[in-house]
Amino acid sequence: QLQASGGGLVQAGDSLRLSCAASGRTFVSLAMGWFRQAPGKDREFVAAISGSGGSTSYADSVKGRFTISRDNAKNTVYLQMNSLKPEDTAVYSCAARRGNTYSYYPSQYAYWGQGTEVTVSS
After folding, report:
1. Residues in contact with 31: Cβ distance below 8 Å, sequence separation at least 6, in sequence order
2. What is the pLDDT of residues 41-59, one digit of tens each?
């Protein structure tokens, strides 16, 4: 089970940190991803991290502004979002898939959190 939190209403240029807490004792064996879905748009890949935390990947639209990290001792993955833009407004969801290797495709993730809403005003 995944529980995402940390969303909110911020102004352009502000920062937010999203958290996703996982239950269970096999968190280190799960690759994690963050996806987002804006109103009227398809869900899109934002960032992902391998189970070990040694490999990460980002969508071009967030590269240099967002950082994904994980604390396997706390069964938690984070998404630090800096320099937020209005186009970052969306519902952000964390997802998990078994194995060390992440994927860019939502269909490859078996477990999903409920989503947390991020709204960036201009």
Report:
1. 48, 49, 50, 51, 96, 97, 98, 99, 100, 101, 102, 103
2. 999 999 999 999 999 999 9
